[in-house]
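Customer ticket, subject: "Can you confirm the structure for D-aminoacylase?"

Message body: Hello, I'm evaluating your service for our small team and ran a test protein. I'd like someone to confirm that this is what the system normally returns, since I don't have a reference to compare against.
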Amino acid sequence: MFSRNPARNGDPVTPTRIRGGLVIDGTGAPARRADVDIHGGRITAIEAPADRGDANRGATAGAGERVIDATGLVVCPGFVDMHAHADLALIREPDRLSAVSQGVTTEVIGQDGLSYAPITPAAATDLHGRIRGWNGDLPDGGITWTSVPEFLERVSGAAVNVAYLAPHGTLRLLVMGTEQRPATPTELDRMAGLLADALAGGAVGMSTGLTYVPALFADDGELTRLCEVVAAHGGYYAPHHRSYGAGAIEAYAECLDLGRRTGVAVHLTHAHLSYALNRGRAPELLALVDAALADGVDVTLDSYPYIVGSSYLHSALPSFLQQRSVDEIVELLARPDVRDDLVERLERRGTTGSHGVPVDWSRVVIGSATDASLPGLSIAELAQRRGVRAIDAYCDVLISERLGAMCLVHEGDEVNLRTILSHPRQCAGSDGLLAGQRPHPRAFGTFARYLGEYSRDLGLVPLELMIHKMTALPAGRIGLADRGVLAVGAAADVVCFDPATVADRATFDQPRRTAVGIQHVLVNGEPVLTDTQPTGARPGRAVTNREAA
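Agent reply: Thanks for trying us out. I re-ran your input and got the following:
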């Protein structure tokens, strides 16, 4: 079923035996007692202890063998984070503590249509200025790559594997800048060519961010053409669609219709329905998904198990500002007439960036900023402290931080979240943002929270199916034929966790607290977490949907 080629991660890996655990293989099948043998980065045997001639050896290692005692633990495939924002963190922080501490062994980056490959030196400065709040500072040496293969080489060699989505917004930025108009046929040809090169170079699909400049300006013809390219390369389309508030249902429908017309597989990223006007509407979204599935569209979706969202603070600005350079935006935000206009646009009407909903500044909390006095304050609280209008406090922060601040938006709905989470085509994705003092706790807590609160404590999804949502289902979406399951010949990405104690500990006040209950994590057969402690090993590599099965 699987390739038996050894993992391509350097020196041979010590043979490993995981003994005495409860194996949940990722397929949704019932748990069973079994030992798991690993060699050369691959699973070589999965056998019940009674079937083994050496069953009585317990946790004693043979010569040259590593033994992990998994008594009382679940042994399952490594978790796949379908929506990671570790694009630069993989370079700056290759030990990837936020990932391995909660059992993640593969991260999918290049999300929301804005990432760092393909890129040019000229575009890199503008791009990073826009998304610095997502990614933090550039790594030492800056951006030294231009192509997708070069970028994948740069992010390889971290503690976890990485898969990459070609970012539509970046492609548009390279071809058209931030102009608000349809692409010409020549420009569309150039974007399609860049996308084809990215997919041939290792990208597993294409993401887009249809509330972010410049992807915001893409019309249906542009998206259709590019989705046809993705489909031709066997990839998938991962849209951050046009609205998560007013017009959300219509925005989801647009994405699913692209799947119908082009044949592209569709993965709805961070799928949720927020704001008061969408309470109780999750069944409408899932009815759209089910109808598309019935029509033959290959649909999956991911979500994080929190009702608070997060993005860069300037995301709520209207497009006529967003399409300008960072310097120009900062200059315009200082003007009283611009601020007066923003009162109307943001507080009374809402913008694409606020998903068509008027902004409630008491629900917008600063998550990170260079000014250490700001994180944890809502814009309304900051305005009150300073004795100014909310719009003035907002603009002042954007100016002083040069658009680098992050925010948390408290507009979610728990009933919608649980309804979406229960759908059989829903996968886990953290949408983890790692920059600044108070990032969203989902970066450190998502997967443990799914296992602890939503599966064990609430009983919303049985454990075998919850693990399926975190392993085989997302791996299949990406096209990773040898990951996401425990089977002989599969890549040895493995997690051992305590089902009775696994829980998230990250909070909005302490967002970098690691989860509990995740005991051991192996990536390509090499331990990256042992007895809850990081090992410092970095066996991860770039993975694609074209590896031999």
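A couple of notes from the result: The chain has 18 helices and 20 strands. Residues 185-200 form the longest helix (16 residues). Feel free to reply with more questions.
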